[in-house]
Amino acid sequence: MLIGAGFYAYSVQRKRQRLIERLEFGFEQQEEQITSLWEGATNLLQLAAIRQLLLSSALIRALDIMIRRAGLRISLLQSIAVLIGITLISALLMHFLYRNNVATVSALLAAPFLTVMIWRFLAERQQRKMDLQLPSLINSMLTTMRAGGTPIQALQATSRNADDPMRKSVTQVLNQLQIGQSPIMVWKEWSDFWDTKPCRLLSTGIRVKWEAGGQMTSVLEHILESIEFRKKIQERIDTLTTQAKFGSILLSVIPPLLLYMQYRVRPELVTEMFDDPTGQKIYIAAGVLTTIGFFWLRKMAKIKME
């Protein structure tokens, strides 16, 4: 079902892109224009229906948030198609290289897992960048309001001068506010999307003062001090856990390094292991366990501030 939805979504996405290009550059014939518009509208409705069907799953919703948070220029349906394509190509390569069912099944399991982990890494990197850029947003709001401006004017200045992902995120908030959406809901959706402590703290302070009224500068100053203090504590924690993180990398590098050294000294032993089906299973199991151990050690060394 997901394979069919992925390929169908890709075709619909291409038709949507062609529709947008025709709307931007015009048409040569009126009849073609009417037909293309009706066809494009139908495709857009079908695309929205498929997206709503997929978003009914909690796993797909998490994937959608991860893709948008990572800043990848692909839609949810395109990401599913990419994930399926990478999985199938990896499985086929392992099947033709080793002619082994274990290797094929391992590729079917490892390829989507590694792809999702890469996307997750990109999403977490964008979250960290957002947290680093958040003090500049608060300082801009404080400077503008102390000069007699409004928070909207501060957001407009940030949307023009800031770097991504802050610029893109603030621009989206401004667009939602300008079309008349509730500021409380807009800031809540913004903090839920980024899902970090500093973003939730800023969102809560803005929503409370926006609803209750009064001066917002004192609240923003308190939020800025809290974020800066949290940043200093996090830097100290990262320094203390550096040794554990380095140990996880070292323990994960040792097995392939030993294998390489063995190949340099006695290459026939490694070659016989790769040629033997049992040896292939042993190497695959060792690779899977080493990968799991690496992520497990990294998780143990990671301390989150609550």
TrEMBL record:
Keywords, in A-Z order: Cell membrane, Membrane, Transmembrane, Transmembrane helix
Membrane topology: Multi-pass membrane protein
InterPro entries registered for this protein in UniProt: T2SS_GspF_dom, T2SS_GspF_sf
Keyword Transferase found: no
Subcellular location: Cell membrane
Domain Type II secretion system protein GspF: 138-261
Segments crossing the lipid bilayer: 75-97, 103-122, 240-261, 281-297
Main localization of the protein described in the UniProt heading: membrane
Protein name, as recorded: Type II secretion system F family protein
